[in-house]
């Protein structure tokens, strides 16, 4: 899977035009797939995108004896977890994906225990799990860390009030899933407010869970005794993929139409792009982006939703590196999410880092060369920079990009970009 020999080649300087279809959100579909563990019946998800992270989860469920049927063409994913067996803590698949720690909540709800290898660090930060475990403890789940594993156990999950020190997306989701079948009510205070949390609750409620307030800072989960078979479910559109294409129009001074947007979910990105000088007009689920106007430098601080998304920070940095003036970008969510700065520098960007702050002094042009996708969104930033750079940009380590974008070269090619994948 991690084919280090694959590269994406972008020849810059083309104007984009036409329409692009946005896929279903990676960060919605991953927790929703994991949540099927709570309910041993046949469950159908629609429009599931072919992403490496999705494939890893599908293979993990198969390893656990679940029936899984996935049609990559229609995106129909049928899962039945009736025969689910307990997790092998040494499973290679678990180690492959950071989001796999989300399996803990539903596994605890189903078996009352779960042992899993500690999620490793990653390029963008250390990603601790203390908030997940603190939340579990309040629900009567004891956990222990040792020898590279986390082991959690409980006789009974009992609802309680949980205050999160930081609105962690993963911790909110894990606790929500653990609490669905608990005795009594659980209240999560300072919960993450991301649209994907709201979507997970919408899915859980479609199976008979009783969750209120998801999408806001206070979530109440009334424990239920059992779940029912849900109707086929379609998760929300990917706001980060949409944002990536919005920036693509801006960085290439083009006009494009993006199909599959939710204005409310995109608000933080829309507001910043407006300030930069990108005009976006939304009608229903369609957005017309005019990126041809003069652009201004801006200051950005990443924050939990509804603040500016950290998952859009590398892409917007690529745009600002070509925008006249000085922009200041502060990353407050992950402590080490500036790996792409060095790569943008190779392309000719002028960016200095001081702790969590990047100072971007816009240059008039970038020039293509060999770069690496240091993580998923950094990889997207490399494509965007490559679309605008003079000459050819060769992006390596693109398995990161495949974790979260489906058919990315094809989508850009359909917009008129000169981009292709090579196997070397
Ligand atoms: C999710 C998203 C990811 C996005 C991130 C922030 C998925 C699959 N991934 O990741 O794309 O970039 O939200 O919007 O949905 N933290 C702790 N203790 C914990 C948990 C988290 O200190 O127990 C810290 C992390 O180190 C990080 C911050 O909280 O600095 C945000 O992490 P979190 O919101 O948990 O992100 P993820 O759920 O991992």
From TrEMBL:
<keyword id="KW-0963">Cytoplasm</keyword>
<keyword id="KW-0670">Pyruvate</keyword>
<feature type="binding site">
    <location>
        <begin position="26"/>
        <end position="27"/>
    </location>
    <ligand>
        <name>phosphoenolpyruvate</name>
    </ligand>
</feature>
<feature type="binding site">
    <location>
        <position position="333"/>
    </location>
    <ligand>
        <name>UDP-N-acetyl-alpha-D-glucosamine</name>
    </ligand>
</feature>
<comment type="function">
    <text>Cell wall formation. Adds enolpyruvyl to UDP-N-acetylglucosamine.</text>
</comment>
<protein>
    <recommendedName>
        <fullName>UDP-N-acetylglucosamine 1-carboxyvinyltransferase</fullName>
        <ecNumber>2.5.1.7</ecNumber>
    </recommendedName>
</protein>
<dbReference type="InterPro" id="IPR005750">
    <property type="entry name" value="UDP_GlcNAc_COvinyl_MurA"/>
</dbReference>
<comment type="similarity">
    <text>Belongs to the EPSP synthase family. MurA subfamily.</text>
</comment>
<dbReference type="InterPro" id="IPR001986">
    <property type="entry name" value="Enolpyruvate_Tfrase_dom"/>
</dbReference>
<feature type="active site" description="Proton donor">
    <location>
        <position position="122"/>
    </location>
</feature>
<dbReference type="GO" id="GO:0009252">
    <property type="term" value="P:peptidoglycan biosynthetic process"/>
</dbReference>
<feature type="modified residue" description="2-(S-cysteinyl)pyruvic acid O-phosphothioketal">
    <location>
        <position position="122"/>
    </location>
</feature>
<keyword id="KW-0132">Cell division</keyword>
<keyword id="KW-0808">Transferase</keyword>
<feature type="domain" description="Enolpyruvate transferase">
    <location>
        <begin position="11"/>
        <end position="411"/>
    </location>
</feature>
<dbReference type="GO" id="GO:0019277">
    <property type="term" value="P:UDP-N-acetylgalactosamine biosynthetic process"/>
</dbReference>
<dbReference type="GO" id="GO:0008760">
    <property type="term" value="F:UDP-N-acetylglucosamine 1-carboxyvinyltransferase activity"/>
</dbReference>
<dbReference type="GO" id="GO:0071555">
    <property type="term" value="P:cell wall organization"/>
</dbReference>
<comment type="pathway">
    <text>Cell wall biogenesis; peptidoglycan biosynthesis.</text>
</comment>
<feature type="binding site">
    <location>
        <begin position="127"/>
        <end position="131"/>
    </location>
    <ligand>
        <name>UDP-N-acetyl-alpha-D-glucosamine</name>
    </ligand>
</feature>
<keyword id="KW-0573">Peptidoglycan synthesis</keyword>
<dbReference type="InterPro" id="IPR013792">
    <property type="entry name" value="RNA3'P_cycl/enolpyr_Trfase_a/b"/>
</dbReference>
<keyword id="KW-0131">Cell cycle</keyword>
<feature type="binding site">
    <location>
        <position position="98"/>
    </location>
    <ligand>
        <name>UDP-N-acetyl-alpha-D-glucosamine</name>
    </ligand>
</feature>
<dbReference type="Pfam" id="PF00275">
    <property type="entry name" value="EPSP_synthase"/>
</dbReference>
<dbReference type="InterPro" id="IPR036968">
    <property type="entry name" value="Enolpyruvate_Tfrase_sf"/>
</dbReference>
<dbReference type="GO" id="GO:0051301">
    <property type="term" value="P:cell division"/>
</dbReference>
<dbReference type="GO" id="GO:0005737">
    <property type="term" value="C:cytoplasm"/>
</dbReference>
<feature type="binding site">
    <location>
        <position position="311"/>
    </location>
    <ligand>
        <name>UDP-N-acetyl-alpha-D-glucosamine</name>
    </ligand>
</feature>
<keyword id="KW-0133">Cell shape</keyword>
<keyword id="KW-0961">Cell wall biogenesis/degradation</keyword>
<dbReference type="InterPro" id="IPR050068">
    <property type="entry name" value="MurA_subfamily"/>
</dbReference>
<dbReference type="GO" id="GO:0008360">
    <property type="term" value="P:regulation of cell shape"/>
</dbReference>
């Amino acid at each position: 899977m991690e084919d280090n020999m694959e590269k994406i080649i972008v020849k810059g300087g083309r104007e984009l035009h036409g329409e692009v279809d946005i896929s279903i959100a990676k960060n919605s579909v991953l927790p929703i797939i994991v949540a099927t563990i709570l309910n041993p019946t046949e469950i159908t998800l629609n429009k599931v995108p072919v992403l490496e992270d999705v494939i890893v989860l599908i293979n993990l469920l198969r390893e656990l004896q679940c029936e899984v049927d996935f049609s990559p063409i229609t995106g129909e994913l049928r899962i039945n977890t009736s025969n689910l067996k307990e997790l092998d803590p040494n499973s290679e698949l678990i180690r492959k994906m950071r989001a796999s720690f989300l399996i803990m909540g539903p596994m605890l709800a189903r078996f009352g225990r779960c042992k899993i290898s500690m999620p490793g660090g990653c390029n963008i930060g250390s990603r601790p799990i203390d908030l997940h475990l603190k939340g579990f403890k309040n629900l009567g789940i004891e956990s222990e860390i040792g020898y590279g594993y986390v082991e959690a156990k409980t006789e009974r999950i009992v609802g309680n009030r949980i205050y999160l020190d930081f609105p962690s997306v993963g911790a909110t989701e894990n606790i929500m899933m653990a609490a669905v079948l608990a005795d009594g009510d659980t209240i999560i205070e300072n919960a993450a407010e991301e649209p994907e949390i709201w979507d997970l609750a919408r899915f859980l409620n479609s199976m008979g869970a009783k969750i209120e307030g998801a999408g806001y800072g206070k979530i109440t989960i009334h424990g239920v005794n059992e779940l029912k078979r849900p109707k086929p479910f379609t998760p929300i559109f990917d706001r980060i993929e949409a944002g990536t294409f919005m920036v693509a129009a801006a960085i290439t001074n083009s006009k494009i139409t993006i199909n599959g947007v939710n204005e409310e979910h995109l608000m933080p990105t829309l507001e910043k792009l407006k300030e930069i000088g990108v005009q976006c007009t939304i009608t229903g689920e369609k957005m017309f982006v005019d990126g041809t106007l003069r652009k201004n430098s801006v200051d950005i601080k990443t924050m939990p939703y509804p603040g500016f998304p950290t998952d859009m920070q590398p892409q917007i940095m690529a745009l600002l590196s070509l925008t006249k003036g000085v922009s200041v970008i502060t990353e407050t969510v992950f402590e080490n999410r500036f790996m792409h700065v060095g790569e943008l520098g190779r392309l000719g960007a002028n960016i200095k880092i001081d702790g969590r702050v990047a100072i971007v002094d816009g240059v008039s042009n970038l020039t293509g060369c060999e770069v690496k996708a240091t993580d998923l969104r950094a990889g997207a930033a490399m494509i965007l920079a490559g679309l605008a750079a003079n000459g050819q940009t060769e992006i390596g380590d693109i398995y990161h990009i495949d974790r979260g974008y489906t058919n990315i070269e094809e989508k850009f090619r359909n917009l008129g970009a000169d981009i292709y994948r090579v196997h070397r």
